[in-house]
Amino acid sequence: MRKLAGVSAPFVVVLALTTTGCSLGANDAVDTLDEPPVTYTDAEEDFGNEENEPEEDVTEEQADESEAGEETGEETGSTDETTPDEAAESLNQRELYLIDSNGLVVPQTLTLPKTDSVMKQALEYLVEGGPINDILPNGFRAVLPAGTEVDIDHLKEEKLAIVNFSSEFNDYNRADEKQIFEAVTWTLTQFPDVEEVKVEVNGYELDKMPQSEKPLVGNLSRADGINVDTSEVVDFTNSTDITLYFLGANDEDTYYVPVTKRVENVDNELEAAINELIDGPSLMTNLLTEMSGDVELLNEPKLQNGEVVLDFNEAIQSANEGSAIPTSVLESLALTLTEQGGIEKVSIQVNGEAGVNEAGIEVEEVTRPELVNAKPL
Length: 377
What we know:
Blueprint: E1 13-15, H1 43-47, E2 58-59, H2 60-63, H3 65-72, H4 84-89, E3 91-99, E4 105-113, H5 118-124, E5 150-155, E6 160-165, H6 177-188, E7 196-201, E8 204-205, E9 239-250, E10 253-264, H7 269-279, E11 302-304, E12 307-312, H8 327-337, E13 345-350, E14 353-354, E15 363-367
Parallel strand pairs: 6-7, 12-13
Antiparallel strand pairs: 1-15, 2-5, 3-4, 5-6, 7-8, 9-10, 11-12, 13-14, 13-15
Helix pairs in contact: 7-8
């Protein structure tokens, strides 16, 4: 595993006295790394007002039509000038799952134009040579073959998105096959009314992957994992998938990377997830962590009313900052644990007392960001 000292990352917490942002001074080994940005957005603004969406199963374009009417409104012709607020309303932020320089599928939250068809637009921004070219982050590449066209039917009551690709989809690089299906699935399941994805090409449902011909059984979902690591598993019948978040790096930028690890003999999934974070990422992934291998849980994790309470020893604190818990550790814990159902926030203690963030203020709880690795507007 690879350990990293001195990385800082913004996060959202509830503090005992006040809420504040902070950053940790990097040491010599990593003093050029930027903070992995994380942005919160209002779910109602992003996905539309539920009261305006049709109840029956319809295409995505029809489902968003009433929302589009409200966004454009009757006031658009009242002035020839666009105010800053109006300009901001014409944009939206989406998590696009792209491939980084290590071949890993990574969410990058980018700002896109407002559209009537948010799901279709998100996939169109995954196409090589498409609109993603103007905003593609350094070190990343699109996942869908150039020229691929996309249509989507959204069965809202079933929480199912049916994706129909044109024949160009079949021309992908076989080495990217697994990443392509993961990127499509995780990009679409960011939307609250999508839990499963069905893939079609020219109107015909795929029952196997076009290149490798590996069978596709049932619909795709996040339960299938992402960047799956099975390197340490011997007994697949007695193991569980757990999705963890570590740090990736490209030049001066750092960002969070989800990795689904197959873990054997799991009695407590929360405790197992924390232990895997402590163990750190596999050397094969080139990922990083600021969590020391000396970190230990002093008590079994407690989950009540959507909040999990974790009590660590002092090793969870940064050696550079004394009693401070590194921001990336707080964020990795929040992202990892909220991947599991029923967890909304994480309370972190050190020797039974509230942990302290890098600004020296007690942290009552850490919550998951709405969008991961967000780029500034």
